[in-house]
Structure formats: structure tokens, C-alpha cells
Amino acid sequence: MKLQWDHIIHYIHDLSSFQFPEDLLQLHEGGRHEALGTYNDLSYTDLSYIEFIDVFDQNILKQAAASEEQRLSFAATLERTDYTEGWKRLCFRTDNIEALNDHFISCGLSTIGPSKMSRTKSDGTVVSWQLLYIDDDRQDRELPFFIQWGDDDVKRTEQLESMFQSVNITDIALMTQNKDQFIQNWIDWFNADYKDGQLLIPDGPTFTLFEGDQESIESITLSGIEHPSMEIRGATYHFHA
């Protein structure tokens, strides 16, 4: 059972008219999550990406967020955070979501899923995946969620590599009110390593922790772009060449 970095979600109101400033990142039309009332654009680095998300029908989303299956979903996060723009969730991918679910249960956690999801692309093709959520009401933050794609990494690379950019997400800064507990949870639950103030997950960015007065994603850092830091629709982006 592998656990790897997959993507981060940035909520943007009126996404259909959004363009990344100075075209520093390329955005590609994703599709619609019909059962959740959301749609997205994607900016790929490799198989990992930034998901820019918006809502096409708040009534659909509200109904989904009230359901048992979707109450912890990435879409429900938008409802819980009052549709404020900015960073929302982290996602990790696995090659065996059933084994990952068993692992979480062995850690004493409750889960929701795995649940099957899909979205329809503009060309009519359907992308499918399964999602898994940790159900832990002791947490004040939006916990990472977990995905297993319908296709393996080799096939997905063949399908998506034309959209890969010479850019990498090298670090994600996280603020927490209880740093020690946060670190221990990631070590126990996600088999993360911790070194020099950073949590490490294979084949992904470092996760730099800061103790503060809230639970939040503070910023991301991208390599391959030389540009001053930017605040974009509630989200902080740092860059380095």
C-alpha cells in the first residue's frame, strides 16, 4: 500500500472567468462533479496538481453536504467554510484504498468510504476514482482525504503528460494549534517522517509546520518559477527558480 502526494484544492468564486496571474500556471478544464454541484480546472505539475474548484449549484452541494456519504467531502468543505476563497484541502493517493481503510481502522479511526466518484470531461469522457475520508470529530481542521484513481499511474501519465509543466510544488506550509499532536497523527496515520520541522510523504512536497491560533493551510511554494510571492483569491503562492 503506497501513499503519495496527489493534489491541493483552491476554491475560487466565479472560476469560469479566472485566469492565473501573468499565466504563471497553465489551467486546464477539468469537468463537473454532477452529484456535488461543483466543477474544476486543473494545473498539473506531474501526476500531482492544483485543483481550482467552484460551485455551479449550491443547492446540490448543500444537499450532498447533509448526506452521510458526502458530509466530509471536499465539496462539503466549501459549505462548512462559508464559501471563502483560498486553500481548502489536501489529498493523497494510494494504490490500495481498501488496505488504507483497514489501516485507519486499525489506528482506532472511523472512516467514510471508499466511495466511487466520477466526473465528465468536456469531451464526454468519464474519469473515475474512489475516495476515503477520516471521520474524527476531535479534529478542528479539514483533514486530508485519500484517492485511488481508476487508472494506474502509467496509463494516467500517458493520458496527462502533455499538460505537465516544468514546475513542482516543493513545500506546503500548515498552521496548527497543537504541533506535537499533529506530527504524531501524521506519523501514525500516514506513515510520514518528521525532520527539521517538516513532515515528509514519499514523492511529494515537504509540509512545514507552524504553531499558531488556527488550523489552516497557509501557503504553497513552487519551484521552476522566478517571481515574487502572490496572494491570489485568498491563497498565498511562493515561487523560486
TrEMBL record:
Instruction: Write down the InterPro entries for this protein, in alphabetical order.
Output: Glyas_Bleomycin-R_OHBP_Dase, Glyoxalase-like_dom
**Signal sequence annotation:** none
Q: Where is the Glyoxalase-like domain?
A: 5-189
SUPFAM superfamilies (alphabetical): Glyoxalase/Bleomycin resistance protein/Dihydroxybiphenyl dioxygenase
Q: Which Gene3D superfamilies match?
A: 2,3-Dihydroxybiphenyl 1,2-Dioxygenase, domain 1, 2.60.40.4320
* The organism's place on the tree of life at top rank: Bacteria
Cross-referenced PANTHER family: BLL2707 PROTEIN (PTHR40265), GLYOXALASE-LIKE DOMAIN-CONTAINING PROTEIN (PTHR40265:SF1)
Protein name per the record: VOC family protein
Organism of this sequence:
Macrococcus hajekii
